[in-house]
Write the structure tokens for this entry.
Amino acid sequence: MILRALWLFAAGLPLDAQLISRPVPPPDAVERGQKQFVAQCGFCHGPLARGGESGPDLVRSEIVLDDEQGSLIGPVIRKGRPNEGMPAFDLPDPQIQDLAAFLRERTQAAINRNAYAIQDVLTGDRKAGEAYFNGAGRCNTCHSAAGDLAGIASRFQPVQLQTRFLYPRGGRGGAPARPTIVTVKPVTGRAVSGTLEFIDDFTLGLRDAEGYYRSFPRDSVKVDIKDPLAAHAQLLRQYTDKNMHDVLAYLATLK
Amino acid sequence: MKRIFLASFVVAAALAAQPLDPAKLLQPPTDAWPTYNGDYTGRRYSPLTQINRSNVNTLNLAWTRRFTAGAAVQIKATPLAVNGILYFAVPDNAWAVDARSGRELWHYTWESKGGIHIGNRGFGMYGDWLYFETPDCYLISLDAKTGKLRWNHQIANVKQEYFCTSAPLVIKNHIIIGVGGDSLDLPGYLESRDPETGEVQWRWNSTPRPGEPGSETWPSKLSMEHGGGMTWLSGTYDPALNLYYLGTGNPNPVHAAQSRKGDNLYTCSIVALNPDTGKIVWYYQVSPHDTHDWDNVETPILIDGQFKGQPRKMLAQAARNGYFVLLDRTSGQNLLTAPFVETLNWAKGIDAKGRPVPDPAKDPKTDGVLVSPNSSGVANWFAPTFNPDTGLFYTHATESYAVYWLTDTEETPEGYGGRDQSVWSQNLLQAIDYKTGKIVWSHRYPNQGGSRSGLLSTAGGLLFGGDPTGNLIAWDPANGKILWHAGLHTAVSNAPITFEMDGRQYLVVGAGDTLYTFTLPR
């Protein structure tokens, strides 16, 4: 079998490189393979190769996973599996490779969970969300729809908005939305305030009003931290899922 | 006279270079750290006292050494310390170094065929032979003297999306190995391999086949065959009962559970196996029907002690789902179940068998549910420790919240079938009274998020571990007071070990690509 150009990792995929375990075939081969699959194989194996009326799921098939550009799929297609009701298809190499490309794309799509499409998250009651915002949630203590949150729904997609309103730092390692203000009181001398830059059990570092970085040993100072996100962390313990969906539905109206 | 002197010199040299004595595996670790957890109990408790509460503040750096390979090196392995040599691995790479100096003796590299390169937990050792797993799921045996390959055997098919990280555990003449991989709904298994040849001695499947016990907890043959239950962290062993204890991974598809209604045995369980046959003797499921990726692989630590006034052989685990469980390890009977952080919101309660009862309202939904903890869990692979002097079980723990979405609503979902996004997390060090499950003391780190390290406790009245910002810390295990710390270049990425050499006690810890070794001044 003469192989066409080797499948290469498509540009833009390194984000998920840890999940995409095998080279993803070129989109044109996948597209040709898909058309052919739907026309000739889909009736039994389903249009997405996840199994159908009479054919098994191919996405998690060991033959498909062990295949390299038609090496194992080709013989099965050409000989068929008469005992199991699968007819033989006399296809030329390029078509076998296209089918293999489509099936590889299907397996990688199942593997690459970071690319799974999240469905509709705007299921809440926006009126109830607004009431919670101004009532039990006390969101309006710090925020307002006409002020800092104006247009927030045009800056973020609903799914981003969902995790960002829960905690604006958003996931692992994001930058804080607002600085944390800290006041340090040494045993002797004057208190110093500034923006918290670093803290652990031993050292505290801040940036003072003049822009100087200053650090202190934790064991000889008193520390007062005003975390602007403390209310968000506290609310995580209070929200019901209905609260979460209602507030999201309300925020999504702030376009 | 000269001859006698020479002869005794030769004897001493031969003793120093002898292969790992199998008896060492049955003793608390003193002049060696010969297994992943130091000994079979999983306690990571050292009886050494030279470094202790009164002198730990004089601890000095003995040596530090950085290791490089093709890719970034992250030492998650617990090194083995045997006869003055440290052996450790990272994905596709393994080293032997002189424990006195950090000098590299050999560096073995494996040409990878793929697999997720998330980490490697290190070696198992049998005589002069070393065993480790590669991300593409080969079991590699090296000659400890030279680092030369003895043989390799494929233990799982990387093309099916298995990947392998676990440190093999040697029990008698069995090399016990496990596998990982959640991406494409694979069945998990554990194998015992022959130390000489690497051939399979037995295989235990962590999900049943149709008709076998446990199959009643799955709706179909297909669901069992794609049911997950990975075996990616070394277990513990009771030689008197001849039982190997293993925590198993979560069921698959991870987040979309509509095709696997039921408890899904033996996923998210603690199982007791006969290491000679691979036959299951008892099981206890800590997370029935998990839908949040909470692998229950956390070390099941063996505790011999009192419970309600009676001496008992027990087993304790601080599970990824946030519950601490104490079992009778002869039978698997539950003695106690208690949450070890306060934020958990996924269980409706605890049933008569002590199992948390999952709340279906907190299963992933298409529009998202807010769940504590996140998918990394309250605990994870980083090692806990049990100190028999204090009676306390120590573990790093995380309070966290995440949104979990169901993305695959088909009747038979594939892959994960859902996603999750952590929104907030806070790390703690928890000291748990094994008799009550109560938190005796808690150390809350002042910063959010960050990494969590493994732990070590010693008879010197010390508890060692790393914080999220790169400090190696010694706590008083009785009350959580910090007694000593040293700032490393990055966070501790494995668990500290300790051993005695030349009459001195050493402490070795990995942080990123570097080993740090501490000892007291002479």
